[in-house]
Amino acid sequence: MAIVLDLLNNDPRRSGQVARPRHPEKAHRPDQPIARKPSWIRVKAPGSEKFAETQKIVRQHGLVTVCEEAGCPNIGECWEKKHATFMIMGDTCTRACAFCNVRTGLPEALEAGEPERVADAVAKLGLAHVVVTSVDRDDLSDGGAEHFSQTIRAIRAAAPQTTIEVLTPDFLRKDGALEVVVAAGPDVFNHNLETVPSKYLTVRPGARYFHSIRLLQRVKELDPRMFTKSGIMVGLGEERHEVLQLMDDLRSADVDFMTIGQYLQPTRKHHEIKNFVTPEEFASYAAIGAAKGFLLVSSSPLTRSSHHAGDDFARLKAARLAQQGQPGIGVPSGPSPPPYPPPLRREGNRAPLPAKRGGVGGKRLHATTVPGSSSSSSSGPIGTMPLGFSCG
């Protein structure tokens, strides 16, 4: 039997409020079958002392996390390490994606004090790297871009040593919004494609595939030194050749880092799982992505955008340094990458720009998160359970 972990019962943020459907737009859809999860999708059940400490800090600051709202399978592992991914601008999304467990509806007004509360929580948790995401806010004139900017600035002030990764909406029809977020200077800009273009109408109907590609490309035009990242789920009925084409599309936008994880169905009203991709297939995607020129590819059944984000950021920096002819500077443990191109020339006092990396024939760097790594490991039959899908 599949078990979806619900950590939102008795949520103090909603005390005294009238209960309402989490996904009203899906209420009258026919039930979809829920497939039994294979043996390689197992995680440790949360509930440790450090998990409780993380939850307490989140609750005390009145914050929302995508870890809880999306039913992330890795919450036990991440919160044990006091790693939480904050979801700003409320817990209600204006989109109605077929895969996502985040609440759908008309959001409430933005909270002016939220950026400072997020920053204070980051400092109290002692995070070396933080991921900040949000719901879609199509109701706002800038899609919430200024709120992202304020949150980034607040974290810089409260925890100056913390590196910042943002996972943003697509800012569709929000002219100038992307520029506001990039100008705030996050270390990593992430925007997920989620699936291949042929599945957008049924899986992600409110978004536009090539708009998302262009968004990621525009980030590099605005700041070539900023790391860019995007992720997809597999198991939604996509074909292998479509995933490979999507990789080429991301490389054409000079995206540095790609994540690939298994789609897990939150409820019977959500899109059904068409197939479970094997660990060997995930490893194959990682190898192909490395050959196509990504600085890093994280590909495993339990890979999610913010899972091991801090470790992955260290690998990203090391991979870029190595590409620029500086191997050995901050290189994390792991297999040695292949040879790299010569160092880039400097322009005045500016730091060297990232090298252009081509398609299949481009310079290649090592991939990570393959079967046997921590992202896809199982802690055994005792205290483990199959969990639900992560939106992030």
Explained architecture:
With 392 residues, this protein is α/β, with parallel strands linked by helices. The chain has 11 helices and 11 strands. It has a 7-stranded parallel sheet, with helices on both faces. The protein is globular.
Quick summary:
This protein has helices spanning 49-60, 66-69, 75-80, 114-125, 145-158, 177-183, 200-203, 209-222, 240-252, 279-291, 309-323, and strands spanning 43-44, 86-88, 92-93, 103-104, 129-134, 163-167, 188-190, 227-234, 257-262, 296-299, 384-385. The chain is α/β, with parallel strands linked by helices and 392 residues long.
Give the SSE layout.
Blueprint: E1 43-44, H1 49-60, H2 66-69, H3 75-80, E2 86-88, E3 92-93, E4 103-104, H4 114-125, E5 129-134, H5 145-158, E6 163-167, H6 177-183, E7 188-190, H7 200-203, H8 209-222, E8 227-234, H9 240-252, E9 257-262, H10 279-291, E10 296-299, H11 309-323, E11 384-385
Parallel strand pairs: 2-5, 3-4, 5-6, 6-7, 7-8, 8-9, 9-10
Antiparallel strand pairs: 1-11
Helix pairs in contact: 4-5, 5-6, 6-8
Silhouette: globular
Number of strands: 11
Largest sheet: 7 strands, parallel
Strands of the largest sheet, in order across it?
A: 2-5-6-7-8-9-10
Distance between the termini: 24 Å
Evaluate the radius of gyration: 20 Å
Instruction: Report the order of strands and helices.
Output: EHHHEEEHEHEHEHHEHEHEHE
Helical percentage = 25-40%
Secondary structure tally, helices: 11
**Mean pLDDT score:** 81
As a percent range, the share of strand residues is: 5-15%
Structural classification: alpha/beta
Low-confidence stretches: 1-10, 330-367, 369-392
